[in-house]
Amino acid sequence: MNITFLGHASLHIEIDNTNILVDPFITGNPKAAHINIDDLKVDFILVTHAHQDHILDVEAIAKRTNAVIVSNYEIVTHFGKLDIEGHPMNHGGAWNFDFGKVKYVNAIHTSSFPDGSYGGQPGGFIIETKEKTIYIAGDTALTFDMKLIPLQTTLDLAILPIGDNFTMGIDDAILASDFVECNKILGYHFDTFGYIEIDKEAAKRQFLDKGKELLLLEIGESLTL
Ligand code: NI
Ligand code: MN
Q1: Ligand 2 mean position, distance from CA 116 (Å)
Q2: How many Å separate Cα 70 from the centre of its chain?
Q3: Pairing of the two strands 123-128 and 133-136
Q4: Residues above pLDDT 70, as percent of the chain
Q5: How many whole angstroms from 34 Cα to the centroid of ligand 1?
Q6: What are the strands, taking DSSP E only, across 129-220?
Q7: Entry pTM
Q8: By Cβ atoms counted within 10 A, which residue in 17, 68, 124, 153 is the most buried?
């Protein structure tokens, strides 16, 4: 599994020959100006919730690539009206795709579309493949529901928001990694705008002090699991 950070909460995940995009917000992120959305290979677009900073580029990319949207019912219905194919899910449900099993899990946050209309309840994803299992938390507060995850699966990587203000900050993300029982963390949802700027080296040290590894990728940089 190859994971590329595309800035903010946007990820590109390659599993064998399947290309999965998560929460594309690229053209609206000046820090990601060197990423061209027309260069991305995409088969599926996973969307955690309806906020602008997670859906901005969904329509353009889906129309170019014919990618299938995987998200909650409300978000899939919204894009369905734009003739974009989707796979609707809801919390606690899982589906076996060819690339692996995807479960839509709880997140504590909000989920309105940019025009204020209802975007369902926000979520995160667990992607379980033959080789590796990852948790993409989405925008969320720390929640005891995270403790349910290791009852059923062993994570190789937890992708957690760390920017604070709109989501968990560092302290809560450290507790979240305890809850999900995964000491390898990829941080996201930081530095994009003023409210969520962090001290990256201090954040890494805080995780290290608890025996955990916080990975922070440059925009466009990849890691392999
Ligand atoms: Ni949000
Ligand atoms: Mn967000």
Answers
A1: 15
A2: 12
A3: antiparallel
A4: 100
A5: 23
A6: 133-136, 157-161, 184-188, 213-215
A7: 0.98
A8: 124
